Structures are given as structure tokens and as C-alpha cells.
Amino acid sequence: MSGYTIKELMRPNIVSLIPYSSARNEFTGTAKVFLDANENWRDFVGNVGRNRYPDPQHRDLKRSISTVMGLPEKSLVLGNGSDEMIDVLFRIFCVPHKDKILLMSPTYGAYQVFADINDIGVSHCPLKTDFSLNLRHMDTVCHLVNNGTPESGMHKMLFICSPNNPSGNSFPLDQIATIAQRFKGITIVDEAYFEFSGKESAITLMRDCPRLVVLRTLSKSWGLANARVGIAVAPPEIVEAMHKVKYPYNLSGIAQELAIEALEHAQEVYRNIEGTIQERERVAQQLQKFPFVKEVFPSDANFLLVRVLDPDGLCSSLRERGIIIRNRSTVRGCFGCVRITIGNRSENDSLLKAMEELEG
Q: Is the full-model pTM beyond 0.90?
């Protein structure tokens, strides 16, 4: 199914939008005196340029990301975490109180929240009980949701989180491609945990899936959750629109510098990913020994979804011992489940020791 063009799917006001032009966007070349942006001439915190606005196009950071992560520089949009990228996509494509999105539940809860904030309806296509894609059901859902039009209102975006949060499993690329080709709107594949999976990226599908957007982040495997650096890899028309809609200085110069520095430590990051995967498998094996653990689901991420007899009691008892895990038992499809992030070996051992005490 060919679907609509990207511009046909965009809100008409975004297609015709003339973006705000900041002083740093208008200037190119070399200068010694900057009197164009109404900045304070004085830097009070170390004379390192904190008084100047950052590069709104993130050019140095994009070059580093392209070099180290192998992502196409011209296809990149950067922002304040993947959450900003998600919100910008909502504002580009979805008309409030008219359009909808489609989610593969259970999945990352922020998609629903951003839909609610933007007054966008949400439809759900549940995953199977083992959290795999239900392609037969998905085929029926796509047939139903593809009936709308940009003029009358339609399902504009479909989110696929792979590896999925909170279940931790990846979805096969051929299945993602099938869905992206059948869905008339924009398919967004959120690869926040991609580096822990050892799988091939959905970016390889973009040539055959022209309405595909892939999200990445430096918050997880790159250890920069505090800096908030999100990445969107998108077709040219979407890249242009996202740059029009995002805030002019949406990523601080401090965050950009930290990201470039982290990317310079790529080999250390890759070694840490290998260590996290080894710990993930060790913790998963140990958790299966406890009688109150009913199931440990396979994971391609840096966390484990675990079904237990009493998730509320387990979380409360661990909290009393200074250990925090995430109770996911109220999430659609995750009854009785908790989510456990993989920490360093000492932290993981503290968790396992506490659970042994609870067993006793």
C-alpha cells in the first residue's frame, strides 16, 4: 500500500510554517565580535563561552554522531532527549482533537502521555502474551485504521519500541517492515535500547519504507541520561519540518559538549555494554531460582521484566532495604510484573541478596 506522501500527512500549518530565525542560524563564517544575539558580553562561570547561545543546528555533534555511530548526518535531528523528538513529531503530523495514533501495547508510557497533552486519540494493538507482534491482528488493525484521510482525520503515527519497554524484547525487522509498508501514516521505531540488543537497526529499512522514522538516545548505553540528548533519523521532508518546529536552542551547548566527549570514549562504552549484557544474563538466571518469581522474560535491553507473586509487596520490601525497582503490574499486559534495571555487579548482588532474605 503506497499511502500518502509525507507532506500530505503533515498539518497544513506546519507545511506553510515560516520558522523563527535565531541570530546564530543567520550567521555563517568567522567573527571576533558578537553583537547580534543580545547576549551578556561577560561569562561569569569560567570564561568557556557559557554566555553565548549554542549552535542551534548541532553541527559538531552531528558530525561526531555520524562518525562514531554510523548514522547519516543529513538525516539527523537532535533534541532534549527522545521525548522532545516524539513531541515534535506529534506537533508536525497530528491535528488536535481529530487525528489518532496507534500503539503496540504494552509499550513506553510517554507515547500515551504526549498524545493526551496534544489532544490526540490513541488506539491499541495488543502484543501477544509473550510480547511478540501479532501480525494477523495487526493486518486487521491496519486495514481498519487506514480508512481515514488527512482531511477527515486519521491514524497519523504508529509507534514501535524495539527493544520494547517494558518487556525488553526486540521485534524482527521483516515484521517491522511489513507493518511500516501496510500502515498509511508515519511509523516511528524507538531504538532507545538498541545497543544492548546485538540486532540490526531499523535504519536499514528506510530505503524501502519511505515514511519511517528511527529514534535513538545517548541516555542509555552512552550514560548521558542527565544531559538529555535524543536523536531522530528521518527522511528529508521530516528533517526539514522538525528543524522548523523544534525550539531554536533546544540542546544546550553543555549537553552538546558532553555528548561529543562521550562519543570519544566509544570503546569504553562498547565494553560496558558487553558487561551489562553478561550481568543481565547472570541476574536473569539467579532470579529464576526464587520461588516467588513466576517468569523472567527474555530481554535485549538493559533491564528485565519479571512476573512475581506479589509485585506490590516485593517493591515495598526492597524499598525498605534501600533498593528501588519499578512496579509495572498496572501496565496493560504486564499484570504481576516488575521491571529491574541491570546495574553494576555490586548493585545486582545487593538486589539478589535482599531477595534471598525475603525468601527466608
A: yes
